[in-house]
């Protein structure tokens, strides 16, 4: 298979606490679909912990391991955000983020100590949240005359596609979601199978 058909993510929101030498590291892990989702979560965490010294994070939104965001939020460069991200990568989870809130305990941990603390807190949160596998989906919109509706709906059903919306005016405009496993075959049939060939158009 030339593409990834599934991805792993966490089962639930979770919170874990890692303590060392008086410092407390609170890892908050949660699923996200967009960067705005993440920003809203981060704001809520900051409001819950206004006296914390740092709110460091790592997040992933795709299966591409080179696409991510991290923040050390004032900690030494590479000592916080990257260890959090590495824990997410090691667990192979995406569409999620982990924010680790730190309360400083008065004793400097050094860069190796910080790396261990941020990574350990994140790993604990991942363990508590659990991991599940999901199929990657695609969304498509097609335009056609009403007379083809029954045939198209049958094809969608055969390929386990889910209809999101249907607009019926002069033409029908139907939006559906299908897993990558079934997408290529379904699209080929919609475009090429008799009698639909030439009578249906993808508009996205």
Give a concise summary:
The chain contains five helices and eleven strands, in the order βββαββαβαββαββαβ. The chain has helices at residues 35-48, 81-91, 110-129, 149-158, 180-192, and strands at residues 6-10, 14-20, 23-31, 54-60, 69-71, 96-103, 131-135, 137-144, 162-168, 172-179, 200-202. The protein has two domains: 6-134, Ribosomal Protein S5, domain 2 (2-Layer Sandwich), CATH 3.30.230; 136-202, Alpha-Beta Plaits (2-Layer Sandwich), CATH 3.30.70.240.
Name of the CATH class of the largest domain: Alpha Beta
Physical arrangement of strands within the biggest beta sheet = 2-3-6-4-5
Q: Tell me the helix content.
A: 25-40%
N- to C-terminal distance = 24 Å
Shape: elongated
Tally of individual helices = 5
**Uncertain parts:** none
| Biggest beta sheet summary | 5 strands, antiparallel
Number of domains: 2
Query: Quick one: how many beta strands?
Result: 11
The CATH homologous superfamily of the largest domain is termed Impact, N-terminal domain
As a whole number of angstroms, the C-alpha radius of gyration is 23 Å
Coarse structural class? alpha+beta
What share of the residues does DSSP label as strand, in percent? 25-35%
Rounded average pLDDT: 95
């Amino acid at each position: 298979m030339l593409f990834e058909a599934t991805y792993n993510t966490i089962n639930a929101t979770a919170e874990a606490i890692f303590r060392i030498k008086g410092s407390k590291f609170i890892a908050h892990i949660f699923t996200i679909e967009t960067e705005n989702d993440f920003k809203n979560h981060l704001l809520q965490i900051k409001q819950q912990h206004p006296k914390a010294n740092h709110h460091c994070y790592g997040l992933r939104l795709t299966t591409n391991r080179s696409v991510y965001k991290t923040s050390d939020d004032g900690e030494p460069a590479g000592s916080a955000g990257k260890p959090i991200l590495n824990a997410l990568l090691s667990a192979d989870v995406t569409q999620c983020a982990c924010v680790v809130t730190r309360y400083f305990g008065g004793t400097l941990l050094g860069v190796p100590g910080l790396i261990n603390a941020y990574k350990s807190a994140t790993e604990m949160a991942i363990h508590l949240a659990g991991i599940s596998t999901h199929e990657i989906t695609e969304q498509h919109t097609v335009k056609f005359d009403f007379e083809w509706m029954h045939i198209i709906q049958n094809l969608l059903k055969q390929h386990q596609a889910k209809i999101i919306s249907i607009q019926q005016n002069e033409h029908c405009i139907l939006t559906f979601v299908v897993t990558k496993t079934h997408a290529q075959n379904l699209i080929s049939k919609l475009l090429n199978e008799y009698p639909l060939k030439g009578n249906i158009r993808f508009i996205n």
